[in-house]
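Researcher: Here's the sequence for the chain we discussed earlier.
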Amino acid sequence: MPGRAVRATLVYDTDCSTCSRFAGAVRALDRAGRIRLVSMHDGEVERRLRPELGEAFDHAFHLVLEPGGQVLSGEAALHDLARLLPAVRPFAEVIFGLPGLRRLPGALYWWAARGRTCDPGRARQRTV
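Model: Thanks. This is the structure I predict for it:
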């Protein structure tokens, strides 16, 4: 969205329908336009992140926080991602703040990740 500061970049597998649905949900919830969505197959993105993330690059989405460029991946990125989405933020603060519920988002993430409709290693095969 023009004129709105991007606060993070979500890097995801555009060849995966599960990942694309997740990114679509983030886009729909990001009414402030704070999150830029980028394909993990983009050459520039891969050149920047693969050396830092290694094999993990292929197995999760990545959230690059601005400023500074800190990279969080998969389950570790969920709380920061939720903080960027005003509609989700209040629920996330409760869920991530309560010891009994703190593990729920990660468990749901890995349950969904097991249902991915793509080959997580395909991103690497494209560039080798």
